[in-house]
Design a protein that fits this description.
Elements: E1 4-5, E2 13-15, E3 21-24, H1 27-52, H2 62-88, H3 92-97, E4 99-100, H4 111-125, H5 132-140
Parallel strand pairs: 1-3, 1-4
Antiparallel strand pairs: 2-3
């Protein structure tokens, strides 16, 4: 059985160990997985914030606004992406869609790779809110079809 992988190489199929072959994930599977992950991060960060600060923060300060709306979900989201990708090779969105992140040789990711991918790669991919990484996938994988 083949799985979709999230590799940025320009090869249409990656051979895994044994008789497994992995297909590259296209734009739409990645898009839907990303939307699911954003929803998971948003809902879970609200729940976690309620546990950390049950009384909430003062509503009239800029600091409270920044912490509540930007800083906390950002830190929570980075931790979610790193831990899920590191332990499972998938976030919840990728699990639902059927995408797994692997190395080009078919092996699971190692922790240094996960850290570089999620900290440096994601920042560059989402540079200034443009999501350039997703646009690159859209146009470089547009004509590829892979049977799963």
């Amino acid at each position: 059985m083949s799985e979709i992988t999230e590799s940025h190489d320009l090869i249409p199929e990656i051979s895994g160990g044994g008789d497994q072959a992995f297909c590259l994930a296209g734009f739409w599977p990645r898009f839907w997985a990303f939307l699911i992950d954003i929803a998971v991060i948003g809902v879970s960060s609200q729940a976690a914030f309620g546990l950390v600060w049950p009384g909430g923060l003062e509503n009239n300060t800029v600091q409270a606004y920044v912490l509540y709306n930007s800083l906390f979900p950002g830190i929570w989201g980075v931790a979610y992406l790193i831990l899920m990708t590191g332990f499972y090779g998938q976030t919840l969105g990728k699990m639902i869609i059927g995408i797994k992140v692997i190395q080009t040789d078919g092996n699971p990711l190692n922790w240094p790779t996960v850290m570089i991918r999620e900290l440096v790669g994601r920042i560059l991919s989402q540079l200034l809110g443009t999501y350039l990484g997703y646009l690159c996938v859209r146009y470089t994988h547009a004509n590829r079809r892979c049977m799963i």
